[in-house]
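Appendix B. Raw example, untouched.
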Amino acid sequence: MRKLLLGFGILLGLVLSNGSAYGQGSTPHFSYKIELRSDGYYYATMKSDAAYSASSNQTTISTIQYTLVAPIGTFAPISATSTSMTNLVGGVEDLLPSTNAGNYIWSTQRTALNTTTEYGYFALTGSPILPNIVAGVEIPLFRFRTQACIGSIRMYRNVADGTGGADTPKLNSANSIYLSGVSGALSDSYKDNYGTATVCPTPPVSDLTTSISGPSTGTPSTPFVYTVTVNNVGSGASTGSVSESFSIPTGLTFNSGGGSGWSCSPTGPVAGATTIVCTNSSPNIPASGSVSFPLNVTPTTTGGIAISGIVSGGGETNTSNNSATSNTTTVGCGISAGVLSKL
């Protein structure tokens, strides 16, 4: 087992070494990737474009070094000066398909490159014993979670990121893998990285809209009902209280409203022009869902009448689509035309 170099950072460079390594002068075959999946874990993987088989000996890895480049504050607080990865949740979980799992340990270190970037360094001591390596088949290495995703993380690049000097402080910049016990004179050096930099997922959010529907006609002094619908057109459920305020015009009296968790204030009857606010403390409207409640009103004059409403709350941030106006209700005189007879 070789002694691990002390360089650590958010660049993930995979180095596997032992006393029986193939030279790096021949064609390299190994590529590496970091990926943020939907379960919130970062997955480190590798693959080979050539097959490695174990005949008389097993395919053994003696040491792994994997380096990542990330926004400062990813692996430890921005103010941190130590090499500890204090922002990992639950440590590093081994995923290697080895026959001797538990006999080796993943270790981590990090170091700040400058005010915006840090390196994350993952190292494996011991000798994982792998089954035969199939060309083009991805091999899982490990996974980890951070307390928050604050920006994209990518693999360290052997050439593009340099191999020493000011841009690689405390970093073992060699990205390569060494195997023992494989048959054939295949190269086992670092080839490149595959995949793209990780992207922080967009958290689901609610986006509330409203609609108000009433009858097409009405009669003075005869109540009718508006149906108010609050729709969630966002990607996540609403959170917390939701309210909708209504502008009740002159010529209309608000009688009552709400129900099913909704309450309206002030309570009726209240003659217009006035404002009524209806609130539900926790409607929990799911994405693509909706809730409805009634408003009972009475027209006091003839002509065209409409009300407007503005919905708010629910954890949404898009307020450009929160208002609606009802259809116009035509209120007649309430007297039917008859046939006049000459006396």
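End of appendix B.
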